Amino acid sequence: MATRFDYDDDSVVVIIGSGAGGGTLAHALAKKGINSVVLEAGKRYQMNDIENDEWEMFKKISWLDERITAGPRQLTDTFPGLPAWIVKAVGGSTIHWAGVSLRFQPHEFRSHSELGDIAGANLLDWPISYEDLEPYYVKAERHMGVTGDSTGMPYHQWNNNFKVLAAGAERIGYTQLRSGPMAINTEQYDERGRCMQAGFCMQGCRFGAKWSTMYTDIPRAEASGYCEVRPRSMALTIEHDDKGRATAVVYADGDGNRHRQRARAVCVAGNSIESPRLLLNSHSSLFPDGLANSSGQVGRNYMTHATSCIFGVMPKPVHMHRGTTFAGIISDEARLDRSRGFAGGYTLEVMSLGVPFFAKFMDPSNAGWGRDITTALDKYDHLSGVWICGEDLAVEKNGVTLHDTKKDQHGLPVPIVYKGDHPNDVALRRHGEQQATKCYEAAGAERVFQVPDFPTSHNVGTNRMSARPADGVVNQWGQTHDIDNLFISDGSQFTSSGAENPTLTIVALALRQADHIAERMQRQEI
Amino acid sequence: MTTSSRTMPLSRRRFLTLSGQGALVAGGLALSAGSLWPRWALADPDLAAGLLRMGRDIYPHDAIADTYYLTPLEPLLNSHRALIAEGLADLNRRARDTYGKDYGDVTEETDRAMLLREIEDGDFFQTVRGTLVVGLYDNPELWEPYFGYQGSSWQRGGYLYRGFDDLVIDWL
């Protein structure tokens, strides 16, 4: 069953990363009979490695290789070595994601047309429309098991945390309140059981009720005989020939030994920090600024969502830790309506943290200690929380660059992850904080407070899609403008961030890309 | 042996008073024979008392016993000995300048907090705080009794039949 491809087999597609983009792509290609080798930097874990323990799972699965947080933002001080909270494991960040599966709105694919030129922003339309992606959204929803119309699975019952937020939201006039769509089974689906409301979605779903490539796409791709997954395999550089075609990926295995896997095509899906880093590290005499970087946009336009959390102390115990972590969605503010003083919209998503992470994140600044903090913690079981998922505008200087001297364990330059707020982000966040506060006040909160950004799990935009090669890195298929057989298959393709969690769109794009790659291969164009 | 043993003459009795209940201190710590004192605290009563006072000022929960503060802070006496000794000595100097007595003898929490605010950007303070924010709040013994947090749930089948949606909002 365990297929093994030869290092010199140049008929395989080499996929770097096994998360929402890479894992989905490997499986989709396998279904078409296309061979692939997946290079995954992280280890392989089993279901019984998944614990309901915030710190243990953080230490076990997070990407903790050295990174430098930079830019005028609090995170630079509070988490100087951890700009992003993402996963290094087979399954990637689909182990950690919370399951919220919203489609982008049609106008979000037309950022520049809708919003025009905004000073300081680097807006661009996607080269695809909502209509182009819609059939793949349906496929993705069925593939992942998203509650709602595409699968027929009902939404979740509202948990306590959502009931509280919803009570306030309804009182301030919000009407678009839903406990889905979520890629978390509410009934048996796709050979996986239903959600047991255990909480700990972000630590990995012990029951497998939440979609993750860890226990769906990856083992199925492997079982097909068309895919070999190599864990603990860190891609170092992508090589090319004289004509500028990608030919191989050099990687380090778990013992530090280097290997060269030859390739018919290379698909990069290492998340929005590692994917551009790999392209930049693959510079050569032919491509001195890095692969696929004729536009100079590799590593730029890094978007994370404009976010903040609001917590309310309620009159009675809520036990927010019970049930799915992101249990409800309010979409009233997701619309585009510039009368609010900002472009783009935001989704309000009810959320919970356990005591360990709540204590860590409540106020990570140097001044975040004392009675103000502990009186909130004393009321932990009375808390309800909401997270603001707001559109973050593309800004060219936000992005990933390579450190001049610092090297990682493989001898590669450490990535510097620079991010500052556009004034629009500030205005959007402030509006979201005010509205969320109103919700909790209307729900009878005794105290409402704000929790600042923590290391972000939504990282997009650093290899963006564009119609013109001068404006971005990849075309509408995720194929790089510069190199025919080099693709980007993760969220770094995003041209805008939307007001929605990225995973569903990453999966839809990966399914669409798989169709395209198969067609191109059939026509012998790759 | 350390600076603080000269500048911070906190007695063993004082430490025990601060600890509140000797039995609670004993509960979670390795003891030397025949004593309520953990070995490290016996060796460094001043440093231990200073760390405990500081921990309780940084994350004050009146109902949580000293042992839950001391246990996670203990390793700092080995791993960051100089930083802790010098930091506490500095804190005492500041306390004497302002209040005419050592930090641990300043009676009002708000007064002690003012002293800590002055040093909160420094390594010493943030090392103690960073250790405690994990050591105190990642202790399952405290979760349910003190915070109402139930910890790991999968082994009990989650909360599907155990109250994930049991809230009745009757206060509005």
Note the topology.
The complex is a heterodimer of chains A (526) and B (172).
Chain A: E1 13-16, H1 22-31, E2 36-39, H2 54-61, E3 68-70, H3 74-78, H4 111-115, H5 130-144, H6 160-171, E4 177-178, H7 217-223, E5 227-230, E6 234-240, E7 246-252, E8 258-262, E9 265-268, H8 271-281, E10 306-313, E11 328-330, E12 346-351, H9 355-361, H10 371-377, E13 383-390, E14 399-407, E15 413-418, H11 423-442, E16 447-451, E17 486-488, H12 503-522
Parallel strand pairs in A: 1-2, 1-9, 2-5, 3-15, 9-17
Antiparallel strand pairs in A: 4-11, 6-7, 7-8, 10-13, 10-16, 11-12, 12-13, 14-15
Helix pairs in contact in A: 1-7, 1-12, 5-12, 6-11
Chain B: H1 3-7, H2 12-19, H3 22-27, H4 39-43, H5 45-58, H6 67-73, H7 76-79, H8 81-99, H9 109-119, H10 123-135, H11 140-147
Please summarize what this structure is.
Chain A contains 12 helices and 17 strands. With 526 residues, chain A is α/β, with parallel strands linked by helices. Chain A has one domain (13-522): 3-Layer(bba) Sandwich (FAD/NAD(P)-binding domain).
